[in-house]
Structure formats: C-alpha cells, structure tokens
C-alpha cells in the first residue's frame, strides 16, 4: 500500500506543479499585455517597441514571443495560445445541440470559453480607447472578430443539422455578435470584471428585446 500512496503523492505533486506553471504563464501573459496597453496609451503604437514592453515586465524579447506574435497582439490580448481549439469541449457540445438546448445560452457558453483569459479585469476601457485612435490595432481586431464570426457560423451550421430551428445561420451569428457587443459594453461601463461575467445579462437583454 505504501507504493500506492507514493504514486498518489507524486501524481498530486505534478498536478500541483502543472497548475502553478499555467498560473504563472497566465500572469506573465497578462503582465505583458498590460504593459503594452499602458505604454501605447502613454505614447503611440509606433512609439512603443517589443523591447520597451519587455523592459517594463523584466523579461527578454525571446520570452515575449512565447506569448505574443506581435506588439499589436499584446495590446489586444491575443496570445499565441489564447484562442480555444476548434474541437474544444464547449464547441463540440454546442455543435451537438448542447449543453442546454437553448441557443442563446449555449452560444454564451462558447463565447465564455473564447473570452477566457482575454483581458484582465478593468482593462476594457483602455483597449476601447486605443482602438479608436490606432488604425492598425482596429484592423487587427476586426480581422480577429471576423475569424471568430466565421468559426461560429461553421458551428451554427453543424448545430442546425442536429437541432433544427429553421433560423438562418446568418441571423444566429448576428445574435452572437450582439451578445459580444453588449457584454463588452457592459464590461466597459462597469470599469471592472471581464466580458464573460456580463454574458448572462447580455442574453437577458437580447431576449427582452425579442419579446418587445
């Protein structure tokens, strides 16, 4: 029995260590993104270098590129591993008609996965301001949103084959876009939290508008 306890202890150790590593990676990714947004807000996108961002956090440029491909992505919070895989559990469940069978609620679940780890609480206001004044950031952000829209439309088409609603995929994807817009705006207005926590309220407001 002793060897069994040793195995369990080893397993717990590696699970704990893995969790610590992931938490440290997330903290460093957030620190780099925060530094990028702060510096660009103080100066301009052209006036900020990857080296300056790294100096602010105390890491090397080599480390920076483990987290972000470009300084623009750092400002936007688009890490190299931030996008959920196309076959993630939440996406598979949605395409299969789940997890609840309610379209808006299930779409919010997929969005919550996409928002996970995107921006630290309270930084939406800063990002919105930067998007309004930096055309390259806006173009990159729009491209990211468009890829997300295309991915969501593929999921909606799959789901419609399993759980038909008779609703055109374009309509459904447009509603998902509304959820994103509302949750982001509520997050910005609150000055705290992340868009994820405002998704239930966004769903409620879309339902209320549909009944009006």
Automatic annotation (TrEMBL):
Keyword presence, Cytoplasm: no
All residue ranges annotated as the HTH tetR-type domain in the record: 26-86
A GO MF label: transcription cis-regulatory region binding
Signal peptide range in chain numbering: none
Pfam family, one: TetR_N
DNA-binding region(s) from the entry: 49-68
Matching InterPro entries: Homeodomain-like_sf (IPR009057), HTH-type_TetR-like_transc_reg (IPR050109), HTH_TetR (IPR001647)
Keywords: DNA-binding, Transcription, Transcription regulation
Coiled coil: none
Name this protein carries in UniProt: TetR family transcriptional regulator
Organism field: Serinibacter salmoneus
């Amino acid at each position: 029995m002793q060897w069994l306890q040793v195995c369990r202890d080893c397993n717990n150790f590696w699970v704990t260590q893995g969790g610590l590593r992931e938490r440290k990676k997330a903290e460093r990714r957030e620190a780099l993104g925060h530094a990028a947004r702060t510096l660009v807000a103080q100066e301009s996108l052209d006036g900020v270098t990857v080296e300056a961002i790294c100096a602010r956090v105390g890491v090397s440029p080599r480390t920076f590129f483990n987290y972000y491909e470009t300084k623009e992505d750092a400002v936007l919070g688009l890490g190299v591993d931030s996008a959920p895989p196309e076959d993630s559990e939440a996406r598979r469940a949605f395409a299969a008609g789940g997890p609840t069978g309610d379209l808006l609620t299930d779409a919010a679940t997929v969005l919550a996965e996409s928002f996970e780890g995107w921006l630290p609480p309270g930084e939406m206001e800063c990002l919105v301001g930067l998007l309004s004044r930096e055309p390259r950031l806006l173009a990159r952000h729009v491209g990211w949103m468009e890829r997300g829209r295309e991915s969501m439309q593929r999921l909606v088409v799959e789901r419609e084959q399993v759980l038909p609603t008779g609703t055109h995929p374009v309509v459904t994807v447009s509603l998902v876009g509304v959820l994103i817009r509302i949750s982001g705006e509520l997050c910005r207005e609150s000055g705290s939290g992340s868009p994820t926590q405002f998704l239930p309220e966004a769903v409620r407001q879309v339902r209320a508008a549909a009944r009006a």
